[in-house]
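Supplementary notes for students who missed Thursday's class. We covered one full example, reproduced here. Read the sequence, then the structure, then the short commentary at the end.
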Amino acid sequence: MGLHYYGLRATNAAYTVNSLNLIPVVTFIIAAIFRLEKLRLRTIPGTMKVIGTAICIGDTMLIGLYKGKLLHLWPTHLLKQAQLQAMGSDASPSAAGNHNDMLVGTLFLCGSCLSYAFWFTILCWDR
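Structure (token representation):
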């Protein structure tokens, strides 16, 4: 949980929620590697598991890489000038520091995802 928290501090909430959506996928992959999950690709349920995993990974990648317009829920003239400059200053010198925080945050989120996946796999190990 701590890794997830530090990843949230270094990245943004949308990016963090995307990493949470990968936990079931990573858990399924780890369970398949340790032979806790029967894959059976020749059956419909086995094929659907693999297709669902691929769709989940693809959607997470799509949402993670998509850069859309900034959504303003209130008029922008209500924001302070410093907030407007911070939102629009991608080319500022501090942007390089934000990139480093994003990398560290991504590593924390990957560690969190792997930790949760291994924890869920260990919980099911005795069955």
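Commentary. Residues 90-97 have pLDDT under 50 and may be disordered. The CA atoms of residues 86 and 100 lie 17 Å apart. If anything here is unclear, bring it to office hours.
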